[in-house]
Amino acid sequence: MNITELRYLVAIRKWGSVSAAAKQLYAAQPNVSKALKNLEEEYGIRIFERSSTGMIPTEQGRHFIRQAERVLDEVDRLDLDARSRQSSCAELRVVLPHATYASYATVDFLQQMADSQQLRVHIRESGSMEALDHVLRRGYHLALLRYAEEDEDYYRRYCDRHGLHREPVMEFEYRLLTNREGPLAKCEVTDITQLNSYMEVLHGDFQLPGGEDSGLRWHTNPNRRIHVYERCSQFSILQNLPNAYMWASPMPRRALEQYHLVLRKCPAQRQRMKDVLVYPDRGTLRPEEQTFVQLLHKQAALTVK
């Protein structure tokens, strides 16, 4: 027995025949007939007597149908309650790279969902390999991956193999982020070794495909590095140390103005990067997830590149 068979049964009682029930439910007549036969065989009873005026329930059949109606009423109430709770609860579980525009999209999302009766939001920042692990094994549904263009085949094969949908968000080249009044804001870096006399700020949890830990491919001078693991400290360091810099993706203009920073192109570094949103390739995104994705694309379009 299943819920569909019970719905077919109640429809036969209501409309008087298998053909009429099938028509009202937009179902194939053989399927309705099979459902009735399955129920009668499973419970060893005859539910209907066939007559010239239609199908008439037997005494056992009337009792069985009343029970079926009660079951269906409970199922419908359960479904209505679940949908009602879902509509009143904004839930988002997302893994992001260290991308300021993604953080701004998250704030925009929280502002839009602030009036929800229930709000369950989990925001995690990590490298791409850890992000994939969270989507596949730790209950997160969205992840924004950041990787070098030459690693595209690796991530594409990985996502295809694990049934993950991919949605491009941004392509870019890293820029030097530094104090607006610092020396790097006033010169052009044509040779990467020019950076050896400055302090580099970089994220301590960066991870390349395959679990390597050698850092980004263009980092230099390992003796003058500041590893950070959260966003506020990186901007404070750059704001207060004119001789510090970090490699940064496109950023919202308001963030640059707030922390008195500037993005500078660096001809010595031409590696192309990609930000790609991934999520399990089954069903559709929930409304609140769709909202977040739209806000993410909007903030990406507003960045200073």
From TrEMBL:
Pfam families: HTH_1, LysR_substrate. InterPro entries: LysR_HTH_N, LysR_subst-bd, WH-like_DNA-bd_sf, WH_DNA-bd_sf. Signal peptide: none annotated. Residues 1-58 form the HTH lysR-type domain. Keywords: DNA-binding, Transcription, Transcription regulation. One of its GO terms (molecular function) is transcription cis-regulatory region binding. Belongs to the LysR transcriptional regulatory family. This is LysR family transcriptional regulator. It comes from Faecalibacterium taiwanense. The lineage of its organism: Bacteria, Bacillati, Bacillota, Clostridia, Eubacteriales.
